[in-house]
Amino acid sequence: MKIFHKIIISSILMCMSSAVFAAKDVPTSKVNYVYQLDTEATIFEFNSSVQNSCGSYSYRVKSSNEAVANRKFSLVLTAFTTKGNLAFHDSQVCEGTRSVVAWVRLIR
């Protein structure tokens, strides 16, 4: 019976650890375009120079409220207009061919 419990616990830990490592930080990228959907004030999308695990270069940013979404959108738009670099956290959660992004950062 102890062996069965060890196998179950090992399986659970392996599944949890693979979920933890599924996401990744993208340390630098260029923004090709950015747009906000008319229907959702807290969601916008951008296209990056870095391919995602969903098979495209498109990313979706979701925020809990409009103020947070506007701040994130401003950072991505600044990276686009200044041809600057953008770092972000790719959650590797796919919505179609778009990967959901957790945070964004404007970098030099």
Brief rundown of the structure:
This protein is an alpha+beta fold. The chain has a single domain, classed as OB fold (Dihydrolipoamide Acetyltransferase, E2P), CATH 2.40.50.
State the main characteristics.
108 residues, alpha+beta, OB fold (Dihydrolipoamide Acetyltransferase, E2P), six-stranded mixed β-sheet
Task: Describe the 3D structure.
There is one protein chain. The chain is of the alpha+beta class and 108 residues long. The chain has a single domain (22-107), classed as OB fold (Dihydrolipoamide Acetyltransferase, E2P), CATH 2.40.50. Helices cover 32% and strands 41% of the residues. It contains two helices and six strands. It has helices at residues 2-20, 66-81; strands spanning 24-29, 31-36, 43-48, 58-62, 85-95, 98-107. The protein has a six-stranded mixed sheet with strand order 1-5-6-4-3-2. The protein is globular, with a radius of gyration of 17 Å. It starts with a helix and ends with a strand.
Give me the secondary-structure topology.
Layout: H1 2-20, E1 24-29, E2 31-36, E3 43-48, E4 58-62, H2 66-81, E5 85-95, E6 98-107
Parallel strand pairs: 4-6
Antiparallel strand pairs: 1-5, 2-3, 3-4, 5-6
Order of helices and strands: HEEEEHEE
Helix content percent band: 25-40%
Report the CATH topology name: OB fold (Dihydrolipoamide Acetyltransferase, E2P)
The total of beta strands comes to: 6
Mean pLDDT, all residues: 87
Low-confidence stretches: 15-21
- Count helical runs: 2
Give the tally of structural domains: 1
Using the alpha-carbon principal axes, give the shape.
Answer: globular
CATH class: Mainly Beta
Architecture, according to CATH?
Answer: Beta Barrel
Give the amount of beta strand, in percent.
35-45%
End-to-end Cα distance: 57 Å
Strand order of the largest sheet: 1-5-6-4-3-2
How would you sum up the major sheet? 6 strands, mixed
Structural class: alpha+beta
Radius of gyration: 17 Å
